[in-house]
Write a structure and sequence with these properties.
Blueprint: E1 5-9, H1 14-25, E2 29-34, H2 37-47, E3 54-58, H3 64-78, E4 83-86, H4 101-125, E5 132-139, H5 152-169, E6 175-182, H6 188-192, H7 194-198, H8 202-207, H9 213-226, E7 230-233, H10 235-246, H11 248-257
């Protein structure tokens, strides 16, 4: 990792911040990007009190003009990133009855549009160098369907589709694309969306352990080295995904009967 330049969207908190702390500790230069300027400043100071190897950019990642402008500022000042980690995400788990009309646009804007815009802009900027690594952080919800997540889950399925298409597009190049899908993580997401936590299907809560933020940071750092196309963690979640492919009808039934009522 020594002296690699790594951009992390959603890097002011949660999984993105955990990745930033791990990668900084391994010698990388870090750029964190998110909307909230005060949270970015606080995270940057926590990661690197000297300010020598961490930079931050306040950006609305759903606004294409802001994404383009921030990207050019980064490249002019710091150079083209070696790795782009897309970790920006949001979206409460709501039923069709509970959700507003705007909820569906919001849950598609972040994470999907934020990821697609970021990857496109930096892919174009990497052309002169001819290589780069894009990592897309997703939820394992992208492999399942269950009640009361009518905006959140489609946004994550969109991320899965984008990842697969992006990988196919770049299969014969020196560019690499990885998708990392996590199960439940001890992160600020559930503090900000308490209703979402209680709506996780009970079968998942019973059988799949919750991951720590530190562990997610380690998984992401390892992926930069291995460049594996798809990573699903924890292991039991990867087993769930495999069995769901074999027995989709059974899993749809299990998700419904153990889902939130």
């Amino acid at each position: 990792m020594n002296d690699k330049l790594i951009l992390i969207t959603g890097g002011s908190s949660g999984i993105g911040k955990a990745a930033a702390m791990n990668l900084y500790g391994q010698g990388a230069r870090i750029i964190i990007q998110a909307r909230n300027l005060e949270k970015l400043k606080s995270a940057a100071l926590e990661i690197d009190p000297s300010g020598e190897r961490v930079s931050y950019y306040s950006t609305d990642l759903t606004n294409q003009d802001q994404v383009i402008s921030a990207a050019h500022q980064m490249v002019e000042k710091l150079g083209v990133p070696d790795v782009v980690i897309n970790s920006a995400g949001a979206g409460e788990w709501l039923s069709l009855k509970e959700a507003s009309v705007s909820h569906y646009k919001d849950t598609m804007d972040t994470p999907y549009m934020a990821t697609a815009l970021t990857c496109k802009v930096f892919y174009d900027l990497m052309q002169s160098r001819g290589d780069g690594h894009f990592i897309i952080i997703n939820s394992a919800a992208c492999y399942f369907s269950f009640p009361v997540a009518t905006g959140y889950t489609p946004g994550r399925w969109a991320m899965l589709g984008f990842s697969r298409s992006f990988q196919a597009d770049l299969s014969d190049t020196n560019f690499k694309v990885s998708m990392i899908a996590f199960g439940k993580v001890e992160s600020p997401y559930f503090e900000n969306n308490p209703r979402s936590e209680e709506r996780i299907p009970k079968i998942a809560n019973w059988l799949i352990p919750t991951m720590s933020l530190k562990t997610t940071g380690e998984v992401i750092a390892r992926n930069i080295m291995t460049k594996k196309a798809v990573v699903i963690k924890p292991f039991l979640m990867s087993l769930f995904v495999f069995l769901n492919r074999l027995f989709p009808g059974i899993f749809r039934w299990l998700m419904r009967i153990t889902g939130y009522k």
